């Protein structure tokens, strides 16, 4: 009898274990980021990095199919998805599940204590119907203006996440102007046939209103309109960023793909405690303002194991532009960027050019840049003000860079690297240097070490302002092969330690007379 009971108990235990294993195997993994993984990265920072807490959520789940979401893409799923988000936050938080399928939707607003989880093979595409987008007061490229509602948005939310395996598509090809020079003839014809629109000066616009808005732009992408009724007229020009979180605390983006944004892809602004992990961020290489991620006036940020393939700057630090940015006065600070790869972009890692509120305490490590216009890019210009300082970069690899591997450009004119003529740059550089004021940008206390670059056009270029030179930069353990070597201008306090540059022509190092306090080991 005892033997029978023993065998029976073993059978029950085995069945229970089997059920548990099967149950676990069918339990969705809503996220994989562990607190210990984030702690390891923050503790390795070269400055005192505050703890960045991974958001957690109650076990409640809200499946959008149960709210009537159409998974075929034939009908808008906006109402169902938004209702699930709203019910989730009212209930005290949990996970909103988007199963496999195609979901067409208008903009969605994420709420506090809500994790939006996308199952494998889920595809969320945002409609290009302008009627679904409201116009509201916003900042774009560091300037207050008006824009259309961002497809994914949140305001004053806490403890929010978008995780899983799905893809969010912003339908950006319907929004972005497109230069004919960036397309093959067959692609250009196909684009015109599919999208309609209007062409002026070899640039495609989605409609005549988008072209009209250009006449109101004092800046490249920010129209100045005093008649409020005209904003509706130029609505198609007011391209939103794909994901825009403002004044939020506790953000996790993990595992998903963000693609084809109307303007910038990911844009947290004035947020705290941000984790971006294991993301795929991609835009067509020709996408106007198609940045990967722009961290603006945020603090305590970890970006890890992400892939970028975009049409503008890939991983970018910002803090507002000119007087509006200085008046806001919120720097981007305490940022760790680790184990990321950039396949295309105007810059792999970028500071500026909108840095008027300051950027400080940033560490970049274990990055790979392949074919980006510039590898490491620091840029600003007169009028910005702000200070970029305490930047630590190490263990970076780059290949096939058509411009500079490392660039400091304090005469930035708004164009991509390689797009500006020598005459345009010379005109700004020959302008009379103003007195140092709050409008003078400063870049200082920067350490860049353990960098390998191959097949670069120019290895390094420092071009500081005569009234505010680039200050206290250390270059250590760097090996680069390039067509041209390193050129340093307007720099004060430069350490070159174990730096090997192999140019095809010219000298490895050229120091202009405006470079002071140089130490070469």
Characterize the structure shown.
- The model is unreliable at 1-6 and 8-28 (pLDDT under 50).
- The protein is globular and about 70 Å long.
- Among the domains are: 177-237, no CATH class; 313-521, Pectate Lyase C-like, CATH 2.160.20.
- The chain has a 31-stranded parallel β-sheet that branches. Strands 13-15-14 form a 3-stranded antiparallel β-sheet.
- The protein contains 8 helices and 36 strands.
Strand content: 35-45%
Span of the ends, CA to CA: 84 Å
Look at the structure and name the CATH superfamily of the domain at 313-521. Answer: Single-stranded right-handed beta-helix, Pectin lyase-like
The proportion of residues forming helix, as a percent range, comes to 10-25%
Number of strands: 36
Low-pLDDT segments, ≥5 res:
1-6, 8-28
What is the makeup of the main sheet? 31 strands, parallel
Identify the overall geometry: globular
Radius of gyration: 25 Å
Indicate the CATH topology of the domain at 313-521: Pectate Lyase C-like
What is the typical, i.e. mean, pLDDT?
92
Secondary structure category: alpha/beta
The number of helical elements comes to 8
Characteristics:
three-stranded antiparallel β-sheet; disordered N terminus; Pectate Lyase C-like; 521 residues; 8 helices; 31-stranded parallel β-sheet
Structure described in brief:
This protein has 521 residues and is of the alpha/beta class. It has eight helices and 36 strands.
What is the element layout, followed by pairings?
Blueprint: H1 2-25, H2 35-43, E1 61-63, E2 72-76, H3 78-90, E3 94-98, E4 101-105, E5 108-109, E6 114-118, E7 122-126, E8 135-140, E9 143-148, E10 152-155, E11 158-164, E12 167-169, E13 178-179, H4 185-195, E14 198-200, E15 203-205, H5 208-214, H6 229-233, E16 243-246, E17 249-254, E18 257-259, E19 266-269, E20 272-277, E21 280-282, E22 293-296, E23 299-304, E24 307-309, E25 315-318, H7 322-328, E26 332-338, E27 341-344, E28 349-351, E29 359-370, E30 376-379, E31 387-409, H8 422-429, E32 442-463, E33 470-489, E34 491-503, E35 509-511, E36 515-520
């Amino acid at each position: 009898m005892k033997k029978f009971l023993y065998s029976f108990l073993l059978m029950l235990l085995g069945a229970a274990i089997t059920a548990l294993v099967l149950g676990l195997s069918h339990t969705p993994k809503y996220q994989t980021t562990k607190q210990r993984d984030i702690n390891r990265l923050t503790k390795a920072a070269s400055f005192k990095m505050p703890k960045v807490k991974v958001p957690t959520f109650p076990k409640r789940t809200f499946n959008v199919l149960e709210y009537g979401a159409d998974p075929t893409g034939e009908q808008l799923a906006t109402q169902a998805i938004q209702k699930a988000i709203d019910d989730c936050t009212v209930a005290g938080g949990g996970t909103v599940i988007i199963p496999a399928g195609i979901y067409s939707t208008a903009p969605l607003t994420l709420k506090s204590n809500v994790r939006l989880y996308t199952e494998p093979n889920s595809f969320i595409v945002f409609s290009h119907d302008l009627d679904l987008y409201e116009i509201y007061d916003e900042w774009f490229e560091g300037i207050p203006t008006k824009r259309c509602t961002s497809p994914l948005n949140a305001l004053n939310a806490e403890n929010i996440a978008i995780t899983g395996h799905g893809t969010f598509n912003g339908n950006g090809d319907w929004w972005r102007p497109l230069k004919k020079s960036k397309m093959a003839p067959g692609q250009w014809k196909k684009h015109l046939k599919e999208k309609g629109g209007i062409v002026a000066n070899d640039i495609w616009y989605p409609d005549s209103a988008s072209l009209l808005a250009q006449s109101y732009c004092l800046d490249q992408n920010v129209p100045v309109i005093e008649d409020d009724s005209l904003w509706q007229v130029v609505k198609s020009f007011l391209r939103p960023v794909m994901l825009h979180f403002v004044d939020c605390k506790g953000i996790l983006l993990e595992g998903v793909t963000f693609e084809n944004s109307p303007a910038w892809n990911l844009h947290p602004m004035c947020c705290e405690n941000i984790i971006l992990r294991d993301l795929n961020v991609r835009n067509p290489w020709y996408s106007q303002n198609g940045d990967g991620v722009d961290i603006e006036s945020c603090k305590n940020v970890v970006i890890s194991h992400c892939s970028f393939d975009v049409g503008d700057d890939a991983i970018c630090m910002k803090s507002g532009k000119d007087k509006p940015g200085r008046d806001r006065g919120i720097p981007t600070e305490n940022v760790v960027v680790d184990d990321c790869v950039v396949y295309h972009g105007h810059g792999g890692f970028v500071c500026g050019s909108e840095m008027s509120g300051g950027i400080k305490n940033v560490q970049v490590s274990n990055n790979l840049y392949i074919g980006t216009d510039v590898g490491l890019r620091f840029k600003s210009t007169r009028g910005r003000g702000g200070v970029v300082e305490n930047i630590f970069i190490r263990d970076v690899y780059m290949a096939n860079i058509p411009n500079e591997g490392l660039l400091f450009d304090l005469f930035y004119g708004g164009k991509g690297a390689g797009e500006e003529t020598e005459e345009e740059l010379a005109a700004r550089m020959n302008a009379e240097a103003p007195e140092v004021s709050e409008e003078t940008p400063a870049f200082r206390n920067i350490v860049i070490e353990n960098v390998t670059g191959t097949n670069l056009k120019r290895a390094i270029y420092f071009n500081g302002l005569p009234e505010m030179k680039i200050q206290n930069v250390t270059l250590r353990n760097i090996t680069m092969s390039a067509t041209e070597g390193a050129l340093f201008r307007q720099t004060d306090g430069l350490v070159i330690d174990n730096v090997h540059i192999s140019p095809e022509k010219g000298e490895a190092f050229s120091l202009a007379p405006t470079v002071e306090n140089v130490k070469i080991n």
